[in-house]
Amino acid sequence: MTSPYIILAAGGTGGHMMPAEAVADVLKAEGCDVALVTDTRGEEIKNVMPDIERTVLAASNHMNSGLIAKIKSFISIIYGTVKVWWMFKKRRPSVVVGFGGYPSLPAVLAARNLGIPYVLHEQNAVLGRVNRYAAKGAKAVALSQACTARVPKGIHSVVTGNPVRKQIAKLSNIAYAVPMGWGDIRVFVLGGSQGARILSDVVPAAISLLSAECRQRLDMVHQARPEDVAMVMKTYAEAEVKADVRSYFEDVSTVLLRTQLVISRAGASTLSELTAMGRPAILVPLAIAADDHQMANARIIEEAGAGLVIAEADFTAPALAAKLERLFDDMGDLRNWSDGMRTIARLDAAQLLAHTILGLCDLKGAET
Questions:
Q1: How far apart are CA 169 and CA 164, in angstroms?
Q2: CA–CA gap between residue 270 and residue 55 (Å, rounded)
Q3: Could you tell me which of 195, 160, 163 has the C-alpha nearest to residue 273?
Q4: How far apart are CA 151 and CA 126, in angstroms?
Q5: pLDDT at position 62
Q6: Which fold has domain 5-164+347-358?
Q7: Does the pLDDT value for residue 176 go beyond 70?
Q8: Phi, psi (rounded to 5 degrees) for 190
Q9: What is the mean predicted confidence (pLDDT) over 8-14?
Q10: What is the largest CA-CA distance in the chain?
Q11: With bands split at pLDDT 50, 70 and 90, how would you rate the model's confidence at 192?
Q12: Fold classified for 170-343
């Protein structure tokens, strides 16, 4: 019997790549042969799916830029589609799975042209542009949220949740730890790949405004852009606050395990990991995110009583400091937010999505 050959196509950000990795682990455990189609940014993420064969495209997203940039983007998608088309002609996949981002579009277009079944997965609470375009013809559009907006009528959708990595899922049953007495409070500032500067500007400044007693309890862990690391370290040092500031943390799950509060953007994969581990959060959605999808993601957290949402326009050092003083004075709200996070976690998302994919495999049609 021929093993299913599954192509995962994902844009080169953690938000696309990490759900793809979680599904890849399940598919490989089921005996599938899995390959990845991504872009140069995805190729640079070496610790995600390092043992999976990769095809790297030059596809890029300049659709919001000027005319010349849009033309270049269009041409890159055409070239990418032709490259993937020939790849699929040499070895026909059983199923192609698009995780969003412009690099997923050539794989989906090639699959559509060759009559290969394809599945789309949407991480956010608003269906992305690539997935909206490709939804017609998809065998299934897997949603992370039942309330996902901008889903075209007449398509077959299933709610699977957003897959989280194995190391996160394994830690999901460990209880949220509230500091005893005057124990340390760990705050994890997670910048993300876009718009991290505002967190590096506002959070350290807000921490500096806290009372001396509060600052003495804090253990800050801060992910900042490389060019901001020195500035952030200097601000924390001047406030006499313990801080570990880096541009990248290899093992986020270990940091989250000992974290009492996360301050972050509202990317879908970050939120999925926070819900899985029950870590309360203050969320600052990226205002320029397409279709304002980060605000839509964050509102789901807020409605579940799992965190606080602050719009960029309201995210100032004095405002944040006032909220932190209240939270740290009585940890009860953070404990309640942790419980709220766990109520909306979908720990079986990777298995549900993999089951949908495997249900479409035509082993007789798969060629090696």
A1: 7
A2: 26
A3: 163
A4: 8
A5: 56
A6: Rossmann fold (3.40.50)
A7: yes
A8: -115, 105
A9: 90
A10: 69
A11: low
A12: Rossmann fold (3.40.50)
